[in-house]
Amino acid sequence: MKKYLMFFWLIFFSNILLLAQNPPFNGNGDGSLVDPFQIWSLTDWKEFEDSLNSSIGFPSVWWQQGKHFRLMQNRDDSIRQTAGGLRCHFYCNWKKVTLAITFNYPSNPFSVLFSGLSNGGTLDSLIVDGYISEAITSSVGSFSGISIMSYCINNATITSPSVAAGIANSNSGIISHCINNGSVSGVDRIGGIASDDRRQIISCINTGKITASNSTGDNIFSGVGGIVGTVANGLSNISNCINLGNVEWQGNVGGVLGLARGMSMGGDAKITNSTNAGYIKGERAVGGILGYMFNQLVIISNCLNTGVVEGDEDVGAIVGKEP
Questions:
Q1: Average pLDDT of 199-213?
Q2: Cis ω on the peptide bond leading into residue 36 (within 30° of 0)?
Q3: Of 29, 144, 245, 257, most Cβ neighbours within 10 A?
Q4: Read out DSSP for 15-84?
Q5: Which residues are registered as beta bridge partners of 284?
Q6: CATH code reported for the domain at 74-321
Q7: Helix, strand or coil, per DSSP, at residue 235
Q8: Which among 209, 140, 121 is positioned nearest to 178, based on CA atoms?
Q9: Integer Cα distance of 140 and 152 in angstroms
Q10: Which residues of 154-187 are buried (b: 16+ CB within 10 A; e: fewer)?
Q11: Which of 239, 228, 283 is CA-nearest to residue 261?
Q12: Which residues share a beta bridge with 123?
C-alpha cells in the first residue's frame, strides 16, 4: 500500500514540476499580483484560453488557479467563444472584447465568453461588445463559490431561445458595480444583470431593454427583471441597484426582480436601497421593484419606484403579487 501511495505522489509532483517548467502561458509577466501575465496579442489570448483548461494530477490542480492576468488592449477581432472557466484573477483595464456568436439552438446551446467563474477567481473592469444569439447565455458566464466580478460592462445585444442575462447566468458568487447597457431578450429567467441569483448583487445598473417572448406568463418558475429574473429558495441579497431600462413580459415582471419563489430554506431574500425608474409592463404580477413573491418571503427596504408600472392584474408600485 505504501508503495502505491509513494508512486501516486511521485507522479503527482512530477506533473506539477513539468507544468511549472512548461506553462500554458508564455507571455510577459510571471503571474504574480505585482507582475501579472500580460495579454497583448491574439496569440496571448489563445494561450490564456489554453491555461483555463490546463490541469494536472489527481485530484486536478488547475494551472491558472490563483494566478494573475491583465488584458493590455482591446480584443476586437470578433472572438466567438472562450472555452473554460476562470479560476484566476483577470484584470481587464476597461479594455473591450467584441463577441460575434450565433449558434443553431439546441445543438450547441451554451455560448458565453467564459463558461464560469469559480474557485475564488475574480474578473474586473471588462467591457463586452457585439452580439450573442441563439444560446442559453449571458455576456460572461455563471458564477459560483466565493468568486467576485466587479466593474464590468456589457454593451452586447443578447437574444436567446431560453435563459438570458446581460452580465451572468446563474450567480452564486458576488457581482458588484456592473452595468448592462445591452438589450436582452429570451424565454425563461431573463435579467439585466443575472438570470437567477443565489448570493449577492451589489451596486449594479441596468439601462438595457429586458423582454421575454413566450406566452407562459403564469409560469411560477420564471421571472423577468431589470436586475434579476428569478430568485429561488432565499439566499439572495440585492442591494443598491438601479434599473433604468424597460422591462416587458406577460407575468412575473419587476423593475428589480421578476420572481421570488421557494421554501425560504436558506433564509429570506432581501432587496435593499434599490430603485426602478424604467417602464415596467406585463399582464399579471407586475411590480416596480418585485413582480411576484411566490411562497418566498422577500424583505424589501429603502427601495423606490419612479417608473410607470402597467398591467391588467396584480399590479403594484413596489410589489405586484404577494402570497
A1: 93
A2: no
A3: 257
A4: HHHHHHHS-S--SSS-SSSSS-EEE-SHHHHHHHHHHHT-EETTTTEETTTT-EEEE-S-EEEEE----S
A5: 251, 313
A6: 2.160.20.110
A7: coil
A8: 140
A9: 10
A10: bbbbbbbbbbbbbbbbbbbbbbbbbbbbbbbbbb
A11: 228
A12: 90, 149
At residue 272, what is the residue type?
Answer: T
- The domain limits of the chain are 1-67, 74-321
The predicted-structure confidence for 128-179, as pLDDT tens digits, reads as follows: 888 877 666 666 656 555 688 999 999 989 888 888 889 988 787 899 999 9
Q: SS3 sequence, 240-284?
A: CCEECCCEECCEEEECCEEEEECCCCCCCEEEECCEECCCEECCE
Instruction: Pull the grid cell for residue 198.
Output: 443565489
Length of the chain: 323
Distance, CA of 296 to CA of 268 (rounded, Å): 7
The per-residue pLDDT for range 174-196, each reduced to its tens digit, is 999 999 999 999 888 899 999 88
- Evaluated on CA atoms 46, 50, 159, 232, the torsion sign reads negative
Residue 148: how many other CB atoms lie within 10 Å: 18
Which residue type does 310 have? E
18 falls in which pLDDT band (50, 70, 90)?
very low
> Are the C-beta atoms of 213 and 190 separated by less than 8 Å?
no
What residues contact residue 6 under an 8 Å CB cut-off, 6+ apart?
none
Residue 20's nearest CA partner among 75, 63, 50 is 63
C-beta of residue 264 within 8 angstroms of C-beta of residue 298 = no
Q: What would the pLDDT profile of 46-86 be if each residue is shown by its tens digit? A: 888 888 777 655 455 678 888 999 999 998 765 555 556 78
Q: If you compute the radius of gyration of the chain from its CA atoms, what whole number of angstroms results?
A: 21
